[in-house]
Amino acid sequence: MPIRAAVSALLLTAVALFPAYAQDSKEAAKAVTNEDGKYFDADGTPTFNIKEDGTVDWYTFSGYRRYHSDCHVCHGPDGVGSTYAPALAQSLKDMDYGTFIAIVAGGRQNLSAGKESVMPAFGDNKNVYCYIDDLYIYLRARAVGDLPRGRPPKREDKPAAATEAERACMEG
Questions:
Q1: Which domain holds residue 47?
Q2: Cβ(10)–Cβ(103) under 8 Å?
């Protein structure tokens, strides 16, 4: 179990070392533009769009699927954390997009007080990195409280741009 504790400590350290400049809020996460089915906030950061009837955009749904394929083993279902790794739905309240990308791609290692903490790098794992925006979008929706736990009941259709980006990333 030392690796579990190491991963948990590492991610907590990463969040402490790389905090966002301001906490994410529902207002900051609000979608203001849509480019080929992908939503962005006022700062141009990828974000989610959830309709009043609970329909989520494709990228939020894809993020849910990818998270539960690759991330939930350590970080628990729906980003709520585990004894192995912290709650990403909580961490993203204080973590900006760039920090998220850097940690997922490059991983983190922390050596302090005789302990070693490790978050593995996923920058070479196309099943994670090709969907990194999707993961961020899903966790951002969870972090601001706009997406409840569980599989989203409805989703928008997959945009052609998502299909093309996925193909290009997987082949590249």
A1: 2-171
A2: no
pTM for this model (two decimals): 0.82
What pLDDT, on the 0 to 100 scale, is given for residue 22?
Answer: 45
**Strand, coil or helix: 137:** helix
Chain Cα centroid distance, residue 54: 20
What stretches of the chain show up as alpha helix (H) in DSSP?
2-17, 58-66, 72-75, 88-91, 97-106, 126-129, 132-143, 160-171
Q: Quick check: 18 and 103 in contact, CB under 8 A?
A: yes
pLDDT, tens digit, 9 for 90 and up, residues 27-83: 899 999 999 999 999 999 999 999 999 999 999 999 999 999 989 888 889 888 887
Domain count, the chain: 1
What is the rounded CA–CA span in Å between residue 65 and residue 33? 24
Helix axes 97-106, 2-17, angle to 10 degrees: 150
